[in-house]
């Protein structure tokens, strides 16, 4: 008998091909979890390897720690979730978040998806029907707990950010674990509730998502941390309507109203339209729309995949947004 094809496998292949270009990031070599001095391109400080284990298996992570951290010093923690086709090192190189961490003195955690769990290295944010997405959330939380316990991260000052599939996972983390995070930044991602399988994720990427899924998402708790959405108007991989959907979910849940958009531009970088949604004096969502940006980290390192150096510096926007929430 001829072998029957699995339709779900075909959807999964389509999803991963859509989210990642054919270039495959080099898998980093594993080293013992003892701290070591970072290479020059990582910026001075410690580039620490670790692993978190849970019901969904194990996930490696990297931690950047700036130099001169005292034994009892508690530093803020920025959790950075890479996109498809990337790993922790590639994402650190592209975003250059470690440079900002050295200047502003905070820790940066880079959880890393396992290629056995997703061949393209995508976080399975959409896989909610079989519980895989929730299990990956739990693994990332375990990595955060390890960093708090072993490296002095301040539990009261944690933010999470991500690009593409990583941005979607960041929003999912904030939805499931809202009390852990003071801020969440979704760059070129898809919000929770829009997709629940590989098939619906492909449709969502193209901007096709129905009212029932949106209604299910807006019914979640209103106590989520403030959200920043960054999305490019020329994104042909994840439609910009997904950023607007995330804004609507967060704003509607909290009863927030939009302020007047502000057009901002620095030097020759792409201009951006910034709209803040607030309830009274409480900021709920900040929307950053960059009309000329495609599917890439805005203001990232030149020559890196998923990186556009001509855009506004998303890493500095991310840290500034998180730091304001930490100060409250």
Q: Which SSEs are present, and which pair or pack?
A:
Elements: H1 7-19, E1 46-54, E2 57-65, E3 75-81, H2 88-95, H3 97-104, E4 107-111, H4 132-151, E5 153-163, H5 165-176, E6 183-187, H6 198-205, H7 211-218, E7 227-232, H8 241-254, E8 257-258, E9 262-264, E10 272-279, E11 282-290, E12 297-298, E13 307-308, H9 314-326
Helix pairs in contact: 1-6, 4-5
What does this structure look like?
There is one protein chain. A hairpin with a 2-residue loop joins strand 1 and strand 2 (57-65). Mean pLDDT is 87; it is low at 1-12, 18-34, 38-42 and 211-222. 32% of the residues lie in helices and 24% in strands. The longest helix is centred in the middle third of the chain and has 20 residues, at 132-151. The strands form 2 sheets. Strands 1, 2, 3, 4, 5, 6, 7, 8, 9, 10 and 11 form an 11-stranded mixed beta sheet that branches. Strands 12-13 form a two-stranded parallel ribbon. It is an alpha/beta fold. It is built from 9 helices and 13 strands.
């Amino acid at each position: 008998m001829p072998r029957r094809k699995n339709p779900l496998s075909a959807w999964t292949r389509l999803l991963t091909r859509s989210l990642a270009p054919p270039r495959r990031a080099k898998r980093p070599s594993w080293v013992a979890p003892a701290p070591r001095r970072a290479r020059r391109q990582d910026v001075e400080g410690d580039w620490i390897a670790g692993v978190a284990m849970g019901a969904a298996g194990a996930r490696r992570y990297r931690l950047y720690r700036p130099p001169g951290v005292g034994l009892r010093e508690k530093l803020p923690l920025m959790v950075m979730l890479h996109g498809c086709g990337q790993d922790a090192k590639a994402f650190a190189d592209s975003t250059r978040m470690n440079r900002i961490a050295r200047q502003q003195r905070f820790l940066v955690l880079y959880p890393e998806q396992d290629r056995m769990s997703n061949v393209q290295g995508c976080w399975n944010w959409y896989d909610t029907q079989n519980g895989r997405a929730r299990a990956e959330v739990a693994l990332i939380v375990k990595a955060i707990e390890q960093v708090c316990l072993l490296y002095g991260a301040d539990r009261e000052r944690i933010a999470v950010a991500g690009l593409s599939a990583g941005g979607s996972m960041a929003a999912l983390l904030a939805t499931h674990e809202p009390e852990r995070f003071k801020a969440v930044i979704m760059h070129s991602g898809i919000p929770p509730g829009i997709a629940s399988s590989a098939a619906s994720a492909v449709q969502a990427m193209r901007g096709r998502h129905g009212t029932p899924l949106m209604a299910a998402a807006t019914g979640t708790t209103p106590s989520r941390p403030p959200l920043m959405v960054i999305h490019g108007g020329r994104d042909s991989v994840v439609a910009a309507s997904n950023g607007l959907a995330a804004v609507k979910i967060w704003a509607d849940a909290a009863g927030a109203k939009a302020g007047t958009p502000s057009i901002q531009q620095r030097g020759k970088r792409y201009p951006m339209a910034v709209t803040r949604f607030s309830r009274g004096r409480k900021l709920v969502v900040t929307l950053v729309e960059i009309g000329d940006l495609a599917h890439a980290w805005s203001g990232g390192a030149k020559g890196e995949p998923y990186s556009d150096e001509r855009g506004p510096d998303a890493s500095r926007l991310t840290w500034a947004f998180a730091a304001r929430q930490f100060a409250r």
